[in-house]
Amino acid sequence: MDRRDFIKTGAIAAAATAAAGCGFGAGRDLGNGKSPVAYKPSGKARLRLSWEPYELKLRHTFTVSGSSRTSTPDVQVKLEYDGFTGYGEASMPPYLGHTVESVCAFLQKLDLGQFNDPFRLEEIMDYVCGKAGKLPDGNLSDAPARAAVDIALHDLYGKLLGQPLWRIWGLDPGKAPLTTFTIGIDTPEVMRAKTLEAADRFKILKVKVGRPDDKEMIGAVRSVSSLPIAVDANQGWTDRQQALDEIFWLKDNGVVMVEQPLPKDRPDDSAWLTEHSPLPIFGDESVQALEDVRRARGVFDGVNIKLMKCGGLMEARKMMTYARAEGLKVMLGCMTETSCGISAVSQISPGVDFADLDGNLLIGNDPFEGVTVEDGRITLKDAPGLGLKDPSQDRG
Are 347 and 339 in contact (CB under 8 A)? Predict the structure, then answer.
């Protein structure tokens, strides 16, 4: 089946039943001439899960301190119920160790047809998580596959309620953050060109560092832009004193935060660096899921939460709550993803300290339309669920 046909079959079904299943007049009179939207599960319908692989094509070669790539493997997911369809995805950058085969094998183990009430989010995701294994660090395995189901379930949930997730959770879209735009490691000429492309659309840039030519890379960006910069070393620095010296230099050159400067297996060195750093230090590779947030206090100033690392929106919200309770700052990040994944994590973005939600902007074959970036800021849609629009609908 063609990718757009895969999406379109769900969109047509949802449009056909939305008015009948979720319209006004279905609930108790409120005394003001209006009735609540009151979709009620029929009890006869069942959840139906389907999926297909989809390769994300990057607009430019993407290079970090340890690798380069021109594409990212991905699996797109649909979760259908009573004519409504929720969408999800699993994105798998190579460094995480997941594959299309591992994601599909996990999804194949799931029998979501046993559930006839899609509002039982906790029960459904407990079942999904129960199919995952326990890793040595205490977190669960198969995070991208679990995230794909979680995202689709939440999209379906919002559509059944007729509301965007940010509204269901009581969040203010006006507090959605600025997002960084990532400038991957490249030649100085290419980095200057990428910076000029982004400088008029974004208010903060993100530069990948962690190699001997870091200062040259920052200098290339600085030669054409004075925008604030966040840097991500992707564990690329190995000496804590040299890292600290470089951070002081970075601060003098307009850098405002540093992400994962040292290898994740050196928490004591990370704690020392955080204590002495003039800039906030965020854990990324060191912080996969909830268990790692418990270990982050005293090691980092903040944590970078990504749906593909933690397993979806339900886990991400728990991580945010726990991080705040521990006095940690919160950053939301992403992999290279379609607008499905980016729109999902954006639903919980209002009020976070930093956001790096540009993964959909780095690919050239996004099948969805979702959240947008306006004047550098995440702009949430006032539309049910994730607020996605399938471009194939415009073709009739």
Answer: no
What is the edge-to-edge ordering of all strands in the sheet holding 205-208? Answer: 181-183, 205-208, 229-232, 255-259, 281-283, 302-305, 329-332, 354-355
Residue corresponding to tokens 């977190």:
139
Give pTM, 2 decimals: 0.89
Quick one: what percent of the chain has pLDDT higher than 70? Answer: 87
From 3.30.390.10, 1.10.10.60, 3.40.50.300, 3.40.980.10, which CATH number describes the 3-162 domain? 3.30.390.10
Q: Which two tokens stand for residue 24?
A: 């006004």
Sort 2 into a burial class: Cβ within 10 Å, 0-12 / 13-18 / 19+: exposed
Dihedral of the alpha carbons of 370, 374, 378, 379, in degrees to the nearest 10: -60
The span from the first CA to the last CA of the chain, in angstroms, equals 18
Nearest to 300 by CA among 292, 308, 289, 311: 292
| pLDDT tens by residue, 167-210 | 999 999 999 999 999 988 888 999 999 999 898 899 999 999 99
